Amino acid sequence: MKHRIGKIAAAALPLAVFLGGCASGPVDYPRTDSSVITDTQETTAGRHVAKWRQGHPGMSGFYPLVNGMDALGARLGLIDLAERTIDAQYFLMKGDDAGVLFADKLLEAADRGVRVRLLLDDVFTSIDDNTLVLLNEHPNIELRLFNPVSRRGIPLLNFLGDFERANRRMHNKSFTVDNQVTIVGGRNIAEEYFDLKSGQSFRDLDVFAIGPVAGEIGITFDRFWNHALSVPMEAFWTGKDAPDLPAARAEASQELQDAMQSIYAKAVGSDFVRDLIGERIVLYPATGEVITDDPEKLLNKVSADHQLLVTRMAEVVADADSDVIVVSPYFIPGTDGVEFWRSLTERGVRVVILTNSLASNNHVPVHAAYARYRHPIIRAGVELREMRVDASEVPRRKDDDAFESVTLHTKGMIIDRRYTFIGSLNLDPRSIDINTELGVLVDSVEMADSLQQPFERRLPEMSYRVVENENGQLRWHGLIDGHEVVEKNEPQAGSWRRFKAFLSRMLPESQL
User: Which residues contact 401 (CB under 8 A, 6 or more apart)?
Assistant: First the structure.
């Protein structure tokens, strides 16, 4: 089964060429390199950062963004603050309320003269090309798609016809304003990442940062922006059926005005944004290490030489003395991973790993692969936890006892109550081997403590601990309304979902 997807792709190639023309994306389209604008000390952001750094020389300032509305408000507030430049890099952007609001605010910033560079991975970005063209038509906005699939013919066949390249994706997420302030983490630009999607909530995490770390993010952005796989939006537009740009701008303006009364007002009115504007947010002063894979990873065969981020994090975790907290939505450790975690627990290091349950996981095949490792990882001495799908604190309606469906999307680690990693890295083969990833490692006891204490306090109620009983059978122990419950099967997952997970066992682990 290991190479089945590759065989399917090869078999589909003649059909893809016949129906879709040239399956490859236009990666050879001419482009002009550009670089981050560094002369931004006199911007509003630059002056605020300089003032803060007077009391914290050599340090960057960090603040974790746990709440989705705070995370959206921080991005929108920074767009309003921008005076020189905005650099945004995302794995996906949708055409829902969050995506449209984000796009409209970028247009508004461009109207003020701000240079905007927007880099989106192509495959899962679902906002329509017309909207992307509209953004790109603005003289102060340049939009590029990373590792694109051809628009000619049938997209799925184009993807399969060029599978070896198209399967490699840029999973990075960063947002930087005036080279002074940045946001890095796990959130994409879509409703579910900001608590805006009714009935569904992604539990996620970003970090807001100022100072030298923002400049380092700018350097990594340039590396991807100027890479051969970064294709200008002009390559996908011939002018045929072009949108009426004045009409589209007028519509965008109206959308923005409508949003100002609802989502925008709520986001920029969040506690974090109000406290940030009022200078009541106390940033954690610390050194921060920006860790990223190189875009060349996507053009080379899978090897340890290109696993830059996970290799560096393995070094940090391997030096742990007391405890390691790991949060990863998708966790497929493999045999080597199991032995890595065993090496820590045998030295007396406490290891806690929280991942999605079958009920909360938005990718059932990933869960099927992970399930193979539950017994080995438990026997390796790891405290294994799975997210409860009803772990939300927000009812769907005021008169409804049902809660929103929760999916864990946070990618983070806390090591020895000192180091905190926040980024885009999942602990699965796709993140480690196939995609590029980005994150920040923060050396701050205070920040680590601010995250670990509430996490440990809520962990028994928001998750099940998975253990083996005396007969070696899996049991899920949970705490519901103060009472311990023990489940014998995948908790909160229906029979259809369990059946899909069973069928998914046939899929190759290397592609998950």
Answer: 395
Active site residue 433: no
DSSP 339-396: HHHHHHHTTT-EEEEEEE-TTT-S-HHHHHHHHTTHHHHHHTT-EEEEE-TT--SSBS
Residue among 173, 197, 227, 306 flagged as catalytic: 173
Structure tokens given for 11: 């078999």
Question: Do 4-23+38-277 and 289-511 have matching folds?
Answer: yes
Question: What is the pTM (predicted TM-score) of this model?
Answer: 0.90
Average pLDDT along the chain, 512 residues, taken 10 residues at a time: 36 37 66 95 94 95 95 94 97 92 92 97 88 89 93 74 85 98 97 85 94 97 97 78 65 64 77 78 95 96 94 98 98 97 98 97 93 97 96 48 77 98 97 97 98 96 96 94 92 88 79 67
- Looking at residue 3, the DSSP 8-state letter turns out to be T
Tokens of 399: 């008169």
Active site residue 401: no
Main-chain phi, psi angles of 263, to 5 degrees:
-60, -50
Task: Based on the residue annotation, tell me whether 398 is a catalytic residue of this protein.
Answer: no
Tokens 């004045």 sit at which residue?
246
Topology, domain 289-511: Endonuclease; Chain A (3.30.870)
CATH entry, 4-23+38-277, from 3.30.1360.120, 3.30.870.10, 3.40.50.80, 1.10.287.130: 3.30.870.10
Give domain limits for the chain: 4-23+38-277, 289-511
Structure tokens at 384: 């294994």
User: Among this protein's residues, is 171 annotated catalytic?
Assistant: yes
Residue 267 has a pLDDT of: 83
409 classed as catalytic: yes
The active-site residue, picked from 416, 443, 477, 500, is 416
Q: How distant is the alpha carbon of residue 126 from its chain centre? A: 16
Separation between Cα atoms, residue 300 and residue 436, nearest integer Å: 12
User: E strand or H helix at 89, and its extent?
Assistant: strand 85-90
Helix axes of 245-260 and 97-111: crossing angle, nearest 10 degrees: 110
Catalytic residue, candidates 70, 121, 122, 178: 178
The residue annotated as part of the active site, out of 197, 293, 411, 428, is 411
Q: Which residues pair with 149 in a beta bridge?
A: 24
Interatomic CA distance for residues 306 and 293, integer angstroms: 7
Determine which one of 105, 171, 197, 363 is catalytic. Answer: 171
